[in-house]
Amino acid sequence: MGDVVFVIDGGRRGPDWLDQVTGELRADLEEIRGVRVRAVAASAPEGAKSGVVEQIGQLAVSGGALATAALLVRDIVAKFIDRAGARSITIKKGDDELTLTGASADQIDRLLDLLGND
User: Fold this and answer.
1) Strand partners, 62
2) One-character DSSP codes across 69-107
3) Per-residue pLDDT tens over the stretch 42-98
4) What is the pLDDT at residue 20?
5) Under 8 Å between Cβ of 25 and 104
6) What is the pLDDT of residue 45?
7) Which residues pair with 99 in a beta bridge?
8) In this predicted structure, what is the pLDDT of residue 44?
9) Is 36 exposed, middle or buried (0-12, 13-18, 19+ CB in 10 A)?
10) Measuring CA to CA, which residue among 44, 42, 81, 46 is closest to residue 58?
11) What distance in Å separates the CA atoms of residue 93 and residue 2, rounded to the nearest whole number?
12) What is the C-alpha separation between 7 and 65, in angstroms, rounded?
């Protein structure tokens, strides 16, 4: 399984807040045995004007246990959304992506589908 990238959109919140919540998500994901997490450099969104860059944090998650641990990842993401108050979190796997803007059960369950597809 390739990397699954978690993109945290902090809106116009400061970089300190983004570092903190990205670190919290990373720590939670690293507790899953067999999963590796690393930071990914974020690029400015296409078409963004200078001085209007929103705060983005990215983590790449990989490992053979990722599909097996999909329920754990789902629960971690649901708790993260509630706790951090991020504007959204986007999970990308290859060409597939899912953007969660709230912790609705339906949106969170779609994460299981995304992680289970190989």
Assistant:
1) 36
2) THHHHHHHHHHHHHHH--SEEEEEETTEEEEESS--HHH
3) 665 565 554 444 567 888 888 877 778 888 888 888 888 888 877 788 999 889 998
4) 92
5) no
6) 55
7) 90
8) 54
9) middle
10) 42
11) 7
12) 20
DSSP-derived 3-state class of residue 41 = coil
* Domain housing 11: 4-44+53-116
pLDDT for residue 103 is more than 80: no
How far is Cα 81 from Cα 24, in angstroms, rounded to an integer?
11
Tokens describing residue 79? 């708790």
d(CA 17, CA 57): 10
Cα gap 11→53, rounded to integer Å:
9
Among 88, 108, 91, which residue's Cα sits nearest to residue 13? 88
- Residue 84 sits in a domain of what CATH number? 3.30.70
Q: Kind and range of the H or E element at 23?
A: helix 15-30
Give me the number of domains the chain comprises: 1
Taking the complete model, does pTM exceed 0.90, yes or no?
no
